[in-house]
Amino acid sequence: MGVILLDRDLHILHWNTFITQRSGKDLASAIGQPLVTVFPEADTPRLAAMVDKARDQGLHAYTHWREDPYLIQLPYGPQGQVNPLRLQSTLLFPFESDGQRCFGLLLYDTTEFARSNDQLAAALNALGSKQQEQEQLIRKLEKANAQLLQSEKLAAIGQLAAGVAHEINNPIGYVFSNLKTLSGYVNDLLRLVDAVDGVGSLEELQQLKRSLEYDYIRNDVEALIHESGDGIERVKKIISALKDFSHIEEEEFHLADLHPGLDSTLNLVNNELKYKAEVIREYGDLPQVECIPSQINQVAMNLLINAAHAIETFGRITLRSGHQDGWAWIEVEDNGKGIDPSILHRIYEPFFTTKPVGRGTGLGLALSYNIVQKHGGRIEVSSRPGQGTRFRVWLPLRQPGCGEPTA
Ligand SMILES: Nc1ncnc2c1ncn2[C@@H]1O[C@H](COP(=O)(O)OP(=O)(O)OP(=O)(O)O)[C@@H](O)[C@H]1O
Ligand SMILES: [Mg+2]
């Protein structure tokens, strides 16, 4: 650090060896000279302002190297080599000596500091561009994530398709093999009928009938036709459920009173219910709900049929409704056999069923879940094995972006 002592008129009194070394000037010839004569470059408005502050106000005056890289030029390095010291912070302060007002001028070499400052700035800059890189990376990740979601959706569709193929394969398989057997039977029967015109005696015809095992054919034909009908029925059910899956977005949402829809659904499934349960309606106060009513009826139907299937002999099914805080709910409760906790998390999976082959496709709840989700709602289930099950469907009264509920 350089120190220059000045009298009240800014004449040089003394300086330290730092100044001698760095300025290359001789102290002895400088003493008594005005500062700006020895260092003409210091004669600046900045120095005038510092002097003003220190002499007239008695304050410390400080300059920062950023505002003013140098006050006086010090062209040499510590070993006398040419190495201009241009970055200086300076301090001019007043003090008293033997009753005289004097000044000290301190010159800090901030070259190193400024250099590390530059390095810091460069490092910060590098960090900034690193951050940009990271942001870019995050954007890429987000994009990849979206693609992944898309491919997951595709995978889910693939899974559904594989499930459908598997489910349809079985009934189609036996309908096909039944058809083959039936065509063999029809051949035999046609032979028998054709023989009617050609045979000589009734006995001959009876003989042919016995040899073709007519009694067996007769029994089997009925069974085969019945079984094939069941198989086709099953395929039809799967196809109509799939159609519902794919048409979910086609219909428009509109305001509807759910109760008439629930009543007509009850009528529709009455055949399935009436031998299994007494149906109790406990409708509450239900404002109009913005929904696709046919889809909601479909959900109610699935829940009602499930409830009936859960009842082993004869039980009770209760259909309730109500609303709360901008949400409508409908509820189907049965006192059937309940759902085992170990499978509770699987009931919404497509093709998950505990029902015997031919009875359930396992699409009912999967479809219902899908519909309710499209409505922005949710399904709650609570079940106690041996006691019964309660499904509650919550639906928002209004779809987002369509104004406030008026309920
Ligand atoms: N109310 C209920 N009581 C007991 N178990 C139920 C009830 N509702 C659903 N389940 C269980 O959830 C499973 C899945 O139901 P889901 O409606 O999806 O298929 P499913 O009824 O078996 O066949 P589908 O409805 O396609 O004819 C059922 O097989 C059954 O084990
Ligand atoms: Mg079902």
From TrEMBL:
Domain of life, per lineage: Bacteria
Start and end residues of each Histidine kinase domain: 163-399
CDD domains named among the record's database cross-references: HATPase_AtoS-like, HisKA
Record field: catalytic activity: ATP + protein L-histidine = ADP + protein N-phospho-L-histidine
The organism of origin for this protein: Metapseudomonas furukawaii
Coiled-coil residue windows: 124-154
Catalytic class of the enzyme: transferase
Protein name, per record: histidine kinase
